[in-house]
TrEMBL record:
<protein>
    <recommendedName>
        <fullName>Metallo-beta-lactamase domain-containing protein</fullName>
    </recommendedName>
</protein>
<dbReference type="InterPro" id="IPR036866">
    <property type="entry name" value="RibonucZ/Hydroxyglut_hydro"/>
</dbReference>
<feature type="region of interest" description="Disordered">
    <location>
        <begin position="1"/>
        <end position="30"/>
    </location>
</feature>
<feature type="compositionally biased region" description="Basic residues">
    <location>
        <begin position="51"/>
        <end position="62"/>
    </location>
</feature>
<feature type="region of interest" description="Disordered">
    <location>
        <begin position="45"/>
        <end position="71"/>
    </location>
</feature>
Length: 484
């Protein structure tokens, strides 16, 4: 939990007897505002004279430098009886950490973390109640290439889970089955449908989210087939699965399994509905509104289009009475965006397309904006323009999960694959007019040293947390909150 927590004035009582005196049954005031919550939970009170484990590793500043705990010691010293200066500081520090832990989940806020994976996706959502969710998982790094700057995704995610003392995610959402959204699934996750995907060190999934296309698609291979088989297994068994949209083909597939659509209706969510199990008034303080896929579209087309039949949703986070909106646009194109806007307007749900955080569709491809790339800037369709320029709130954050933006005239600029410079220029212009920001995962904080990029949801809106390219996760700088 980045930043310094708010000052609290909780009085706690340590009922344990202290062989050193002065710490036993003495009530003491815990000013956890001076303690960085990143240290919480890392206090090894069981040994080495209650010394903090971070102290033993040398993470505290040497004496003489400013440190929250040292300020506390100078301002409110312990009684001197039976305590050395070192143990006074350590005891007070551990007490403050315990106070911070007692605040615990109540002081947590939601955070979205985007990982530098090239033209690929994996976003981690940490909810205010401690729940964790992944939106896509694509392990794209080539370990045999020493120049590959993409993150080692399994190492990064497992380190985060260990810090939270977990071996599972509450939700893993695969927006569609393209390799850049599900690569490496069979190596990372514990999957119930086959014993070969089970064993020590694998990460479990409490609830799997997939579009109906992931159940129905034939001819899948590699990671796409693995996700499909797991989704089919869970839907057959009737647990741990949420399927988005109910095209006629889904009813036909269920019938072949000896099941009815009605028997699995509680596991299916359609476009225009909220996802059960989440509420902005619940402990997670978040809800999900589904915009895509459309069941009728799959019925009309007859064939599956992974990008256009992918999951698109708005996540709403409530913090301090303020709602912050995030739009996850998957890999849909402009015509699908047009259809989402028209349908949303027809039902009077324009607020379901508000956004403070915008996950740019299809790795910053011009096809998600308009029909032609353009010379320097892609011109949007009428409805894309409305979504980007009207629904985006002031001081918003746009995130392109992509390679660095190409420079004009380069080989990368001539590549038919995204990111497209012209699309990037359009998004940059939108952000500039709203006093917002446009970020690229493989450029943040620098193209030479990309790091995971986190956005914290606060009572003032979405706040971008910048990680130093040199110091890595140990140095986090909070930019001003996006208070649209």
């Amino acid at each position: 939990m980045p930043g310094i927590s708010r000052r609290t004035n909780n009085v706690e009582k340590d009922s344990r007897s202290s062989p050193q005196g002065g710490l036993g049954d003495t009530p003491r005031r815990c000013h956890s505002s001076w303690i960085d919550p990143r240290y919480a939970g890392r206090c090894n009170e069981g040994g080495a004279r209650n010394r903090c484990s971070r102290t033993r590793r040398g993470h505290h500043p040497p004496s003489g430098r400013s440190h929250p705990g040292l300020q506390f010691l100078r301002q409110r010293p312990f009684p001197a009886e039976g305590l050395t200066a070192q143990s006074r500081f350590q005891g007070r520090f551990c007490s403050a950490v315990r106070g911070s832990q007692s605040q615990g989940l109540r002081n947590m806020t939601a955070k979205l973390t985007f990982h530098p994976l090239g033209n690929a996706d994996c976003t981690r959502i940490d909810f205010s109640d401690g729940k964790k969710m992944l939106v896509d998982y694509a392990d794209m790094r080539n370990d045999n290439n020493p120049y590959d700057k993409r993150i080692d995704l399994p190492v990064e995610l497992k380190a985060d889970l260990r810090a939270a003392n977990r071996d599972n995610y509450d939700v893993v959402c695969f927006t569609h089955l393209d390799d850049d959204h599900c690569c490496g699934t069979g190596d990372f996750f514990w999957l119930d449908h086959a014993a070969k995907y089970q064993g020590e060190g694998r990460i479990k999934i409490k609830e799997l989210w997939v579009p109906a296309a992931a159940i129905l698609e034939d001819g899948c291979d590699d990671s796409a087939r693995i996700v499909r088989q797991e989704a089919r297994h869970r839907l057959r068994q009737g647990y741990g699965i949420r399927v988005f949209s109910r095209p006629k083909k889904l009813a036909d597939w269920l019938a072949k399994q000896g099941l009815s659509l009605e028997s699995r209706a509680h596991l299916i969510t359609d476009a225009g509905q909220y996802v059960p199990g989440f509420s902005k008034f619940g402990p997670e303080r978040a809800e999900f509104f589904i915009h895509s896929p459309f069941g009728w579209r799959q019925n009309e087309n007859g064939i599956i289009d992974r990008n256009q039949d992918s999951i698109v949703f708005q996540a709403t986070f409530l913090e301090g009475g303020r709602e912050t909106y995030a739009l996850f646009m998957s890999d849909i194109h402009a015509d699908s965006i047009d259809q989402i806007v028209l349908t949303t307007k027809r039902h009077g749900h324009e607020d379901r397309l508000l956004w403070d955080i915008f996950k740019v569709p299809h790795h910053c491809s011009y096809t998600a904006i308009g029909w032609t790339k353009g010379e320097d800037e892609t011109q949007p369709t009428e409805h894309v323009e409305w979504l980007c320029e009207t629904q985006g709130r002031d001081r918003h954050i746009m995130v392109s999960t992509s390679k660095p933006m190409p420079l004009k005239g380069t080989l990368e600029d001539a590549d038919v694959q995204p990111p497209h410079r012209q699309a990037g220029n359009y998004y940059k212009a939108v952000a500039r007019r709203a006093d917002g920001s446009f970020k690229v995962t493989m450029e943040s904080p620098t193209a030479a040293h990309p790091k995971p990029m986190s956005i914290e949801v606060t009572s003032r809106g979405a706040q971008l947390l910048t990680v130093s390219a040199v110091a890595g996760a140990a140095s986090i700088i909070a930019t001003p909150a996006r208070a649209g």
